[in-house]
Amino acid sequence: MPNQNERIVNSNTSSKSSVPTILIVDDESDILELLELTLARMGLEVERAMNISDAKHMLELHHFSLCLTDMRLPDGEGLELVQHIVKYCVDLPVAVITAHGTTENAVAALKAGAFDYLAKPVSLKQLRSLVKSALNLPPLKSKVSSGIEDEEYALLGESPPMLQLRSMVEKLSRSQAPIYISGESGSGKELAARSIHAKSARHGKPFVPVNCGAIPENLMESEFFGYKKGAFTGADVERGGFFQAADGGTLFLDEVADLPLTMQVKLLRAIQEKRVRKLGSTQEENVDVRIISATHQKLTERIEDGRFRQDLYYRLNVIELKMPALREMKDDISLLANAILARLCEASGRIKCNLRKSSLEALIQYDFPGNVRELENILERTLALCSDVEIGQDGLQLESFEASPPDVVVAQPATSSIALPLQDYLDRLEKESIVEALEKTKYKRTAAAKLLGITVRSMRYRIERLGLNDE
Ligand SMILES: Nc1ncnc2c1ncn2[C@@H]1O[C@H](COP(=O)(O)OP(=O)(O)OP(=O)(O)O)[C@@H](O)[C@H]1O
Ligand SMILES: [Mg+2]
Predict the structure, then answer these.
(1) Which residues contact residue 294 at a Cβ distance below 8 angstroms, ignoring those fewer than 6 apart?
(2) pTM above threshold 0.85
């Protein structure tokens, strides 16, 4: 039973007009009563409708802060009401209540723009956290942000693909739907995930990024779900996993294609049930986590190969966000380059430098296989090697990037590259060791991994990260 502390509106201090009102739409009076009681205990006003047409009528007459609707109603599907609200009441979050086990309905509602869903039998704890999140949503901005404004995770750019992307980000940040972010390496997938979280009702709660390719398979379950004391040797204390850490916030599953199949099954269950079980525990606990996943790989191909479960894919990919490649936004290169340069100069405490027209033109001509991250690397290297205030085309040394794409760089001795930014230098060392180990073992990855003292998984991840796959 909820206690007084869970009231989100205090009836002693707030006037009736400032109390958020929730519209609940259901044709079963016992569910209506349960919902109404719970919401009233949270200090909220409730209005009821028993069918779609009454609900539409009430939406015209009153201002609501949230609409909760059943999926099956006497005069149609709840989905119709979702579509109506998305179209005519853009600022109103709508959540659906789905029959137990009908996940397709939930997915369809989220795709149509529902804020979230609750499965029957409705868990009151989940209901309360859904309502709190919905009421916590910042008001919808009338204009999509320019990206230039001082946001912490701003996706910069004014080209049509970037404008479209930002408007999607704005919309998606107002829903709890799982998002699947696809796009080439360095195209801003993680930045987009952080931006969605930062704009969402969950922004006060953690954003937990997880690199699915970097966790050893035998530790995956305990890392994701936590463990009880004594669950295995070395488990001296009880610990929560990523899900518990992200409770109330966002779990970002990066490189999700790298999840082993056994883990995929467990993840699917956790997402569907919104519950997890710690390793060594007999009890499940509720978790309220929004999942955003990303990969630069083609997940559909991995499904065809049998390396990724289709059911999990459908669960993760409720809404897909495609990051444009930098070469598709040539008009933005100048804006991005200047913004990155200004940031780098400020961070290193040096006076602001500019790119000459010729350097900008060279950058615009360049193909950027590594996208914005590559642009950042080029500019970082330029600043490290050139002290001029006006950076000319020579300072950029683009030819060396073009002449030596990631897989060719390996051929140069590491000692000559000490002037590179640290990450590039370390990457080069790592590449050299891997290539050497592969050559010594006649390109047998297992043997090469052994030689380097790393797991095959970690080896595969590094090969992919360093772009050595084509060798
Ligand atoms: N539109 C953008 N505006 C500003 N910075 C950007 C933009 N896109 C990417 N970046 C920057 O480029 C770098 C790479 O972005 P991010 O790490 O999000 O890429 P990614 O798609 O996750 O890459 P990977 O596939 O390699 O993991 C980051 O420093 C990020 O801040
Ligand atoms: Mg990333």
Answers:
(1) 180, 181, 182, 183, 189, 190, 193, 252, 253, 254, 255, 256
(2) no
